[in-house]
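Second attempt. The first submission of F-box protein At3g26010-like beta-propeller domain-containing protein had a stray character pasted in from the spreadsheet, which I only caught after the job came back as garbage. Lesson logged: always re-copy from the clean sequence file. Corrected sequence (413 aa) follows.
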Amino acid sequence: MESLKDNMMTISSDEFENNIMADAEEFSPAIKQQDSGTHKVPEDDFKAVAYKQEWNEVSKLPADYIRREDMEIKDVAMKHVLPFLPGKSLMKFRAVSNEWNHWIVCPLLAYQQSTSFQKLSGYFYQVVDVDFQSDPNFLSLDHSANGIPNPSLKGLKFSGLESYYVCNPLTEDWKRIPPHQYYHGSDPAVILAFDPQGNIESYFHLVAAVPLLDQPVVFFGIYSSQSNSWSCSSSECLELEYTSLVGGGLYMKGMAYWSTTSNGVLAFDVKNEVSAVLCVPILPGRYGAVTQVKDELSYVTVYNDCGDVFMLDIYGGMDMSLNHSVCINLGHKKSRQTLEEDPFIDNGTVLCSVLPCINSGDDIVVICTTERIYLYYLSGQKVETFMTPGQLNPKRRFIPYTNSLAAIHELKN
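This time the job returned cleanly.
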């Protein structure tokens, strides 16, 4: 049998093109609808027509629309670079021109920046105790790019020991949350649940994990900014007997997470209101923190093995199994006299802890010691060092912060 390839080679290119055109006219006649019926489109209608500048005037394009061929470097930077910068840098760039100032204060840019820039900018920290609660302060990881006007938040008019406030420290915009129905305790385990993606209205939730007094039961109070009201979830956690929640928590991908004193992680699905406890198989007496590694939930522990060597264990997955261990040298140099005099150093080893961390593709683990805060990049095995704000205190709480322009709209009555 003659092959298709051999058959096609016997036909000239002109004959092949004519056959194709004939088939197209036979099976796909061009038609055009008119009041009187249908007829074939004249051949002249298929001729290419040159682009006319008048089209741009008739179409009434938006005033800020710039055709790609007319864009300058400043236009490209304004539209496609600014959304990926931290908020502090954007505040500085308002002085570039009136056009830039108008764009930077635009709610649309605030939405784009909150969805595009999600890197760790620093930590708010404070000592939280039953009898004492210090003013919050801010530790910036990049003073030139990540900062806020008032690190202690004293410019915001907060009042009431049992009141909640939601604020954007960069814009100094804040709202007071309506009173809740149940007593949340002196050190409430509350998480701000905010998803910027597809949320141009900047709606958010507050999720409070509230243990019942003298009962191994934790219930969840949920505040919704959309309805401006609190509700009590029908889901309760009955699996935290002889344990308690540790400090704040972490929110990612619609889930709220809290560490516990029994080496477990309390998880709560905010949308579906379902809770569960994830058990972490670590040695008794060793604690870690929930953090985000490779865009997934992880539980990370750290301990000083000897000298400058620290061991990092990363647990993850539905069973929170040990994914991998990392041995790192942080260069934590101390003299023998300092080791003997420092109350936070035991038998020549440095006490250390892992801080909760949010990432955006950086895979950072944050380690806090008596003198330093280390940012360890898992992918590149790079270490950045920052000074620790005072002595390591187990009652000091660190809350990760992202330098965002996300707006806080007026809450409904």
